[in-house]
């Protein structure tokens, strides 16, 4: 290994294969072919009894693994709100991989400590959060939501005289969670992991777009955790955040906003009205690897109550540093963490305010184009396209499902399925800066061809 560590050809091989992959991303199948998936059988082998050849290992990954990847960095992948990658973010991640930093503490990486401090300030500014708001840099919104709700649990119980860290949940004062009945599944997961259970949830009826209905919002109090949504995963709709937050503030309730992909609407003057009120929430979550197009994985939790998040994520140990520098692990569940802040910093530093606006508003423009062209082709668009989500259906559920399967098999583009208001639907998530007007038109043609093939 010492020889290979000093041999630039190993890293050069990976760089060459990466450049070949990038060069072909525009025309590569969006989803791997059956043959490419079948070729993965080559990886099913016994554990080697001794060291292998680094060049051969990388060649196998490129030759066998590359064709079996989902081509989400191109312009025609519309599944799961997965973004592409801004080139400088990808390059920064490669550089950070060579550095191999552990972003746990200042002592383990002064660079990551400083960059987290810088990006924390940028995020506060972008989302209008007050000075003192703290950011935790995590893998994604699932963990970010867990962090935000854990901070809420700590603070709400502390106000009632109960230290959950010392006394646990047994016999603790009862808390209530209020959220729309279309909340994301990751919210339910976080609720369960934190020991609340679904019995603590008071679901609020939503309208035809999945927005929480204010006229159905129950009275709130100081034992309430209100969870709002900035971007419904099917329709892209936003809860009436400002109005709901105002009610919560009057009642001393905690407000968490799940903004995995939608929170970034705040950076675009033309879309910022969708997120009005987030600046008054207690905690927010966002995924940079979605709308901002950083490499995976890159999530953020923001909490205006720094002490609540730090107490909820509390750690101790005589070997751990206790100093005035930022120690990132104080605001996340993990101690050992990769240096994901490097590519987030690079992406934000490169784009700036105007670049982020151009990226985010561009996703909305392409989504509107997608909806208009699908409607003109005779498909039924089921949602108001307020952000980057398009929900579409055929004449009946059977035709919708069959058309989706044909689109996915075409290799031209890829979308996911959903059930919306008991109706089968095709979910188009426009999340890539690469997506061009031509990509949208080409994808709509794939929809039409799929529908015709199904009809026979």
Automatic annotation (TrEMBL):
A GO term, aspect molecular function: pyridoxal phosphate binding
Coiled coil: none
EC numbers on record: 4.1.1.86
Signal peptide: none
InterPro entries hit by this protein: Aromatic_deC, PyrdxlP-dep_de-COase, PyrdxlP-dep_Trfase, PyrdxlP-dep_Trfase_major, PyrdxlP-dep_Trfase_small
Alphabetical GO biological process terms: amino acid metabolic process; carboxylic acid metabolic process
Keyword list, A-Z: Decarboxylase, Lyase, Pyridoxal phosphate
Cofactors demanded by this protein: pyridoxal 5'-phosphate
Residues carrying N6-(pyridoxal phosphate)lysine: 290
SUPFAM superfamilies the record matches: PLP-dependent transferases
Family classification: Belongs to the group II decarboxylase family.
Protein name, per record: L-2,4-diaminobutyrate decarboxylase
Source organism per UniProt: Botrimarina colliarenosi
């Amino acid at each position: 290994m010492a020889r290979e560590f000093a041999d630039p050809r190993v890293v050069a091989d990976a760089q060459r294969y990466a450049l070949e992959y990038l060069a072909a991303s525009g025309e590569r199948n969006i989803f791997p072919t059956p043959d490419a998936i079948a070729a993965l059988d080559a990886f099913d082998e016994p554990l080697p009894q001794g060291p292998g050849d680094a060049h051969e290992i990388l060649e196998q990954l490129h030759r066998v693994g590359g064709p079996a990847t989902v081509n989400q960095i191109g312009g025609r992948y519309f599944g799961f709100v997965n973004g592409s990658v801004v080139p400088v973010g990808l390059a920064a991640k490669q550089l950070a991989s060579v550095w191999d930093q552990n972003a746990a503490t200042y002592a383990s990486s002064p660079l990551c400590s400083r960059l987290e401090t810088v990006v924390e300030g940028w995020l506060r500014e972008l989302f209008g959060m007050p000075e003192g708001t703290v950011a935790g840099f995590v893998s994604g919104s699932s963990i970010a939501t867990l962090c935000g709700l854990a901070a809420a649990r700590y603070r709400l119980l502390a106000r009632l005289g109960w230290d959950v860290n010392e006394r646990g949940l047994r016999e603790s004062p009862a808390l209530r969670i209020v959220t729309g009945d279309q909340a994301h599944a990751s919210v339910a997961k976080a609720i369960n992991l934190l020991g609340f259970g679904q019995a603590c949830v008071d679901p609020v009826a939503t309208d035809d777009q999945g927005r929480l209905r204010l006229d159905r919002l129950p009275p709130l109090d100081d034992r309430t955790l209100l969870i709002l949504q900035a971007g419904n995963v099917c329709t892209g709709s936003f809860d009436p955040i400002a109005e709901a937050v105002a009610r919560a503030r009057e009642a001393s309730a905690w407000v968490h906003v799940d903004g995995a992909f939608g929170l970034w609407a705040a950076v675009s003057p033309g879309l910022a009205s969708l997120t009005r009120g987030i600046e008054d929430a207690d905690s927010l979550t966002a995924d940079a690897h979605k709308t901002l197009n950083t490499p995976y994985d890159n999530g953020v939790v923001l909490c205006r109550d720094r002490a609540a998040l730090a107490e909820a994520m509390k750690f101790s140990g005589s070997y751990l540093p206790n100093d005035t520098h930022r120690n990132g692990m104080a605001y996340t569940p993990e101690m050992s963490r990769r240096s994901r802040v490097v590519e987030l910093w690079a992406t934000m530093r490169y784009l700036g305010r105007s670049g982020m606006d151009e990226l985010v508003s561009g996703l909305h423009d392409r989504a509107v184009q997608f909806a208009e062209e699908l409607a003109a082709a005779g498909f039924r668009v089921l949602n108001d396209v307020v952000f980057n989500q398009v929900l579409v259906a055929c004449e009946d559920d059977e035709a919708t499902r069959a058309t989706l399967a044909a689109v996915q098999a075409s290799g031209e583009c890829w979308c996911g399925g959903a059930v919306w208001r008991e109706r089968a639907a095709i979910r188009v998530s426009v999340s890539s800066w690469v997506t061009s007007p031509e990509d949208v038109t080409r994808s709509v043609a794939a929809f039409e061809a799929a529908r015709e093939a199904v009809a026979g």
